[in-house]
Specification:
By secondary structure, this protein is of the alpha/beta class. The longest helix is centred in the C-terminal third of the chain and has 21 residues.
């Protein structure tokens, strides 16, 4: 984009009407600036605004796909502000997510911390019976409770597991409780980062995809990336995945499975550097493009 990008509307991609109108949009972006259960570095609440701002500075022509995905329309909703109570936030996000899905729109939720994922998963499960959850993440997030709440970001996949089977990719940090659960819980399949590094992610595509049902809710915690790619996250873990690995995997996923909705969480902007939020914005846009390409919604000129 040009230096005029700062004058664009504060919508994802800087889109103007009619492409940003809800009625015209194939895609809907829901910002959730919540970090109420964060236990180390706060700042994820600033993530959605940073991602939307960065998205106004990216080119809307996707060079990989040869299309402008935004011509399908991307509507940016009002942010969900529930700064103090995780359960209130979850109820409001669920209400909105279910409405968007019922309206036959494709929902992408932008955090904020990972606790928010439970609500769009719950809404998707109410509509798509054969649902599974695919989690790209550094952390297992399978604790039963943490800091006296079962709705912490550290518990989100345990709560999702109560709704649907879960496949985890990129995990490289878990507690003893979570490690024990992985030995006994048949509805969780985990691909640890050190095994991915040893084999490469591409050779594991078929094995990962074989663990999924046909209808997939995708949740991406940006700390799945190596900190060299995304330093702006609350709990960075060494040994993560790289941009090309993730995009290539997402292309395989969208070609083989029906991704019904997704979220991207845990971006924590770092002052005076924009690399993390720009990668996150482009990741969202690229994923929307891959979904549109697989569905045949848009074709190259």
């Amino acid at each position: 984009m040009t230096s005029e990008s700062s004058k664009l509307p504060f919508n994802f991609g800087g889109l103007e009407r009619p492409l940003s109108d809800y009625d015209n949009a194939r895609f809907v972006v829901l910002p959730v600036p919540f970090d109420g259960t964060v236990t180390w570095q706060p700042g994820a609440a600033r993530g959605p605004d940073a991602v939307i701002d960065a998205s106004r500075n990216m080119e809307t022509f996707d060079e990989l796909l040869g299309v402008e995905t935004c011509t399908l329309g991307i509507h940016t909703m009002e942010a969900v502000y529930e700064p103090d109570n995780v359960e209130d936030m979850l109820e409001e996000v669920h209400r909105i997510a279910r409405q968007v899905i019922d309206d036959k729109k494709f929902l992408v939720t932008v955090g904020g911390e990972h606790s928010l994922t439970l609500s769009p998963v719950r809404a998707a499960k109410e509509v798509f019976d054969d649902l599974c959850v695919l989690q790209l993440d550094a952390h297992a997030d399978l604790r039963d409770t943490y800091d006296d709440t079962p709705f912490s970001h550290a518990c989100v996949m345990r709560r999702c597991l109560e709704l649907a089977p879960v496949t985890q990719v990129g995990i490289r940090s878990l507690c003893a409780e979570e490690a024990q659960l992985l030995k006994t819980e048949p509805n969780v399949t985990t691909f640890l980062a050190h095994n991915i590094r040893a084999a490469g992610l591409r050779p594991l595509h078929d094995e990962i995809l074989s663990t999924l049902t046909d209808q997939v809710y995708l949740t991406i915690d940006v700390d799945v990336f190596d900190p060299a790619c995304v330093p702006g996250t609350g709990t960075p873990e060494p040994g993560g995945l790289l941009w090309d690995e993730v995009v290539t995997f997402l292309r395989a996923l969208t070609r083989e499975k029906h991704v019904v909705a997704f979220d991207v969480t845990e971006l924590m902007p770092i002052p005076n550097t924009v690399a993390s939020e720009f990668l996150t914005a482009k990741l969202i846009y690229r994923t929307l493009g891959l979904i549109a390409d697989a569905a045949g919604w848009i074709t190259p000129d």
